[in-house]
Amino acid sequence: MLKEDRSYIYILWGAIGAVILFHGSLVWTTMPETYDAYVHLFFADHYAHHWFELWNPKWYTGFAMTGYPPLVHQSIGLISLGIGLKPAFSVFAITILVILVIGMYRFARLWVSPTAASLAALYLAFASCIVETLHIFGQLPTLTGLSFLLNALPDIYKGIRWRSNSRLIMGLSLMSVATAAHHVTTLFGMVFFVAPVMGLAWLDYSREEDTHPGLKTYLIALKSLLPRIIPTVIMIPVILAGTIFPYWYWSKKDPIAQIPIPHGSRDSFFEEPTSGLMFFIIPLGLELLLLPFILKRVLDRRNFFLGISFCLMLLLGTGGTTPVPEKLLGTNAFNILTLDRFSFWAAILGCVFMGEYFARTKQKIFWGFATLLLVIPIVNLPKFRPMQPQAIDMQPIVNFLTQDQHNRWRFLTLGFGDQMAWLSTQTDALSVDGNYHSARRLPELTTRAVERLENAKFKGVEGIGSLRQFLVNPEKYYLKFIFSNDKFYDPLLYFTGWERVQRLENGIMIWQKPDISPMPSKINTKVYPPLHALLWGTIPFLAVFFALLIQGYVRLIMPQNQFVYPFTFPVISGRFRYFYYVWILIIGGISGYMIYPFLFPQKQSTPEAAIKHYYDALDFKYFDKAYAFFDKAAGLSYEQYNLERSVVDGVVASYAKLNGIYPQVTRISPVRAIAKVKTEWVTPLDKYETVYEHELVKREGKWYIIPSPVKDSKPPEVLIQKSTILYHNIGRRTLSLNATQHEDILDRPELYITEAALIQSDTSYAIVGEIQNIDNSPAYITLTGTLYDAYNRPLSVTNCGMTVKHKLLPKETTSFRIDVQFIETGTDLAGKIPVKFKLEARGLITDNDLFKNLDCMNFYIKEDSINGFLYNQGTEEVSIPQLLTTYTDKQRRILWVENTFLRESIRPERNAFIRCPMADITRMKRIYQGGKADLFVNGVPNYLFIPKETGVQKDFIPAYFPFLHGFCYFQTNGYIANPTIY
Known about the structure:
42% of the residues lie in helices and 19% in strands. It is of the alpha+beta class. The strands form 7 sheets. Strands 13, 14, 15, 17, 24 and 25 form a 6-stranded mixed beta sheet that branches. Strands 3-4-6-5 form a 4-stranded mixed beta sheet. A hairpin with a 6-residue loop joins strand 1 and strand 2. Helix 2 crosses helix 3. The longest helix has 29 residues, at 2-30. The N and C termini lie far apart (86 Å).
């Protein structure tokens, strides 16, 4: 016995040392690549500077800090005052892991021997569930709550079994600390951890006098323990509510009401093997191989309650693989919770009996080596499959936001991943986006299943639609600057009226929206009762203080009962070992099914596989990998392939995200195949479908694609000469910290709204019309329409988005269509029908993006489509050509404006065919024709800008094309991705 006692102490100290050395050497390097670490640093930064402030204005136009328990963030913030945020995160993480290892030993000691418990703690130090939670997910609050919960459970057990008030108080004090760190752990811990421990105390107490108790003995024991069980059951919810009372108050007064956001833990793991790997296989790790042993032990009579908890969590952790978790949790909870937390908790319970197995087996070295062998690839998983963009140097962005009072406007990041939170910690500037979706309250965000605007492209059409609302109506949020790390969004920014400003030295492109007013000196903030701020700022640390005080008092002063392990290990029969070998084969096969495609995808085993992986490589711009799928016998060199690819541009070629691919083999022989491939591409502008036919050949057991020839045309001229009028606003601002002086401000250009009307199309509404720049300087225009009902109540305020030309040369006109989005105001339209509108046009003199050399050629109307050619007569390649088609009635009053983007780019002196379906204007109903009282330009009535001499010039507008119900005419616009710098 003495030898065992001495050995388990050494093993426990070895587990603590392993945590410090292993995780301490990793956490600093893995932290930037995790999902949540930067979010927790952002919260910690808030507490470091505003400890008692419950409102954070930096995200979502402001949000409540009471939406997340504060202990972890307050602790990191306090430590960071001396060593900085990132070191503070690392120090706190290592401290918590040490507490967690000790807690695992103490918790395991309830079920197994001291040696097995110390081995369980040692295994936990390297367990895949801990490695993934800290080094992949960065979920430090989850680990903190769990560490204090595990340490509380032995005291709760001893308090109930020995009927000791002091022990119960010790356990409950630690539960309060767990609640202050992560309330969800305490909430579910009552069911999955505390209840089994109470059941264990009851069973053990029943067997103190009788090793084979009957029902009467159990009932007598239960009656004796109820005076301890009932107060404990009551006190845990009281602690849960009292420790973080402001959180529950916030949840009641401002409940979360948003569309559920998809999460991989709710997938069917057989349909999505990568989700199964990430949220089930990796957390359980080696426990899957030893699952029969664990199940046999947890379903032992003494461990009955723990077995129920373990099996239930294991089942819930399977996500959407079966319908059972949704039925158990309910549809609402199923769609809100991330179910990987259940597989994580199941793995924690399994660690107890992993320690017992290691204590029994003679192959300890083998299992130790297997544990390390599993951990290494998990730690390096982001290296194999990057989960975040490459690290971004934030200092140039911070410098930009601090100069010239740029922090007086809000900003938005695109393509930053979770690094957007790290930017927010380094600047006082405010963002309209954020990285904690539970705190969102803007209806533009909560009505769509989009977690963040910055990664909107990964949510397809819904994500782009949510982002577009902010880009079209930035005035509502004082949004002026966008920092883009992903060129995917560039066309959307351009066609919604944003301008490129400069590319920073870290590669980030800055876009700005002209004519946005700065935020007022005092922005609206939500005021919370002072008592809530006091409770939020003091209770978490008071919980820690009293927990330490109570622990020290009870352990040092109160007499300690000697804990005796009640039972020896049961004998494992030989039959079970045979079953165990069969189980290893089964679980190995299932794990291999999920892991093998991830590590060794069969890319060219079938024609369909070759085509899918070829398009997948194109989607991620891995052109060297895409070239590897071509048949080398075709004679296409990699240099030639790159050359041919470089001359193909356009919205699909350069700005598309693959949303779906459906290959169909139409003809196949042993060595050749013909496949028809339908693809769906989500672009920032629209959703496109393409259909291609590929010929494939089989060589040495692999299928290769025979490359198709690239169609190219030669321009008629070798050298193009164009006379160009260039504009540049150099300003006259002096070197002063004062705001822009009046002498530096250009006059607003004169505009004239030639026509505007409110049109109803089925159940939607739009304001259509035409506007002209009657000034002698180029103009950037913003059109804002406001709808009113019959009682003159405003229903919606919306800007014109992409169906307009935002830049107009002198005397140039553009048609426009303002699509009304009622969701922006959250207005209930029941009984409130738009009957009229007001339209305001604002202009600024501009000198950017004035390319106007795209012309229409040979347009004709055939059946239900418009056909023709767009010709580029300029010196720049038009990456994305745009065609505005204006439909009028027979009196030539505008009824509708349609917007079409050509998929391919147009190089200089070349043309491209375009076909677009005709709009059905018979569905368009004119509701209201705008008059003098409805149209305004730069804040004054529109009629004051009527040209007195020359009138409204329309000589440059293409001819009207007649069709059955009226006329139409065409205007062009274009986005140049890489303009020439002169």
